[in-house]
Amino acid sequence: MAAREGYAQAGEYKSIDLLAVAAAREVTDGDVVFAGTGLPMLAIMLAQQKSAPNAVCIYEAGSIDGKPIDLPTSVGDARCATNATVAAGLTEAFYGQLHSGSVDLAFLGGAEVDKYGNVNTTVVGDYANPSKRFTGSGGNPDINSLARRTVFIMVQEKRRFKENVDYITSPGWWVKKWPEGKLVPKKEVYGKYFFGGVDAIITDMGVFRFDEDGIMYLDTVHPGFTAEQVKDNCGFELNISRVSGETLPPTYEELDLLYKVVDPEGIFLP
Amino acid sequence: MAQPKRISLQEAAGLIQNGDFITFSGFTIWRRPMALVYEMIRQGKKDLHLFEVNGGTHTEVLAGAGSVKIWESCWVGHELYGKLGESIAAGQIDKSIIVEDYSHAHVVARLLAGAYGLPFMPTACAMGTDILNPEYDMLKKAGLRDGSNPKIPTQKYTVAQDPFFGKGDILLMPAANPNWALVYASMAGDDGTLRMNAQTYTDAEAIKAADKVIVVAEEIVPASYLRSEPKMNIASGYEVDYIVEQPWAAHPTGSQGYYDTDGAFIKKFYAASKTKAGYDQWAEEWIFGVKDHAEYLEKLGVTKLESLRANSALGYSTRIKRGTR
């Protein structure tokens, strides 16, 4: 390949590429990363190729520190276990790795999010009389509950960024205390099991983080968008007063790694 | 030590009664006992109560056929090959299926408790979510938590205080002990010893939690072959009640070391499953239109099956086209 250096220009990459790249940049070398299916897989594999070769990847079906030769299509895929240290099962993944407090970073997806970082992947409408059902929780709330940091990778749409999600599948910074269901800080519900929480939401328009009160704000805007445009694509009153700048676009090296090494078959990157 | 009984797929499906409480081996679109699921539908099983660590294509095939009354789980879909579980969703919306949602770790906790003979298993996962909303306890709403069904706990969960180290609140999830574990195994010894290739998912837990176990094995091998490497095995023959030998029994789900997931087949099923008419037409072709699994495989054809066959070194196929390049 021709050695191209520096950052790709507008038109030379797709928004999905930037999603994967921005997520990969959240990984610190040596992190124990618990990743979901899809873009989270691209992000961790890109990070391992680029800047975090010692990051350990756990998938909930039971593979520990796999080094796939071919990109898995889901976390239960045979490919997840290639060159793994351990090919176990869900008891190991959820109790042995997650519940034991070993997970530094969770990479997950979601259908809807609210300003507290609560994510819904279960239903639209009242749960007892829903108008639409998504896949359901899967391991999303578990991994997000007990990881030190969670990064969600999502599509930005006004209807997906809500004041309150219809159903809290996965906990943000303000969660429900049962049996009353009053919104309280996550720490109040998790007590000694509070290890951290949602650190970033990365969409096709920007990167969002959470302030001291656990409320989402816009941190960086992707090239080609303005903070106002992001705000217009948000269903709640988004704080854009803390924008720190523009998201760095993918480098040519990152794009080459994504398309030639991580996903050469075009599974998640068509 | 009782050894499992060798039976046919038809006999295996015949053991399952309408209304039975069932769990499965596998993970989403991997190692599901599809051949047995198809045969259960041919035999018209109804009102099944499924307890699943996660759902997948097999769930949707059963739900589309109208075989499912209660679904307790946390996820259903076809991974990359179909983003939703259309029939479970339709059943939840029109209330023909009682759906009880948990988190993945909650369902694992329930199965672990059942497997280990404990009344409950603690977990701190998914606290503060609507999964624990008392208003959303659908089995309670249906009047099924009155203690009359010994397989349905009287509460969905409870919260306890750590009595030893002062770590505070933790969830207790009640044990699940289904009537049946329907298990697809990579290999079964002729004494019933079981081996699963690669990730073990929650297969051993499902086997231990269930009252009775039916194994559909890709192949039956001499026990001595499995016993020469005991650490590779997940269960002993005495834990298994019935064994069926059926090659390609997991198709269209994948089986590490034998064949890959048939994504194209699942995609077509998913598209069909979006309407009742579509499902019925699909079932007529692939379930009722063939008399058994041998005919099903005949219909798939050698070319298709060969494209799915796993590379002996890698354990998955290198010949199927998975993406756009």
Average residue-wise pLDDT of chain A: 97
Q: What coarse outline of chain B follows from CA principal-axis ratios?
A: globular
Low-confidence stretches of chain B: none
Strand order of the largest sheet of chain A: 4-3-2-1-5-10-14-15-16-17
Query: What is the N-to-C order of secondary-structure elements of chain B (H for helix, E for strand)?
Result: EHEHEHEHEHEHEEEEHEHEEHHHH
Regions with little confidence, pLDDT below 50 for 5+ residues of chain A: none
State the helical fraction of chain B.
25-40%
Sheet/helix structural class of chain A: alpha/beta
Oligomer: heterodimer
Q: Which band does the percent of strand residues of chain A land in?
A: 15-25%
Number of strands of chain B: 13
Model description:
The complex is a heterodimer of chains A (270) and B (325). With 270 residues, chain A is α/β, with parallel strands linked by helices. Chain A has helices spanning 15-24, 39-50, 90-99, 140-146, 186-190, 227-232, 252-262; strands spanning 32-35, 56-59, 63-64, 86-87, 105-109, 112-114, 119-120, 123-124, 132-133, 149-153, 161-162, 174-177, 182-185, 197-202, 206-210, 216-221, 245-246. A 10-stranded mixed beta sheet of chain A has the order 4-3-2-1-5-10-14-15-16-17, sandwiched between helices. Chain A has a 3-stranded mixed beta sheet with strand order 7-6-11, with no helix packed on it. In chain A, a hairpin with a 7-residue loop joins strand 8 (123-124) and strand 9. The radius of gyration of chain A is 18 Å and the shape is globular. The two termini of chain A are 20 Å apart. The model of chain A has no long low-confidence stretch (mean pLDDT 97). In chain B, the strands form 2 sheets. In chain B, strands 1, 2, 3, 4, 5, 9, 10, 11, 12 and 13 form a 10-stranded mixed beta sheet that branches. In chain B, strands 6-8-7 form a 3-stranded antiparallel beta sheet, with helices on one face. Chain B is 30% helix and 19% strand. Chain B has helices spanning 9-15, 34-42, 57-64, 86-94, 104-115, 138-141, 203-209, 223-227, 263-272, 276-288, 293-300, 302-308, and strands at 5-6, 21-24, 48-51, 68-73, 98-101, 120-123, 158-161, 169-174, 180-189, 194-195, 212-221, 233-235, 242-245. Chain B has 12 helices and 13 strands. In chain B, helix 4 (86-94) links the parallel strand 4 and strand 5. Classes of the chains: A alpha/beta (270), B alpha/beta (325).
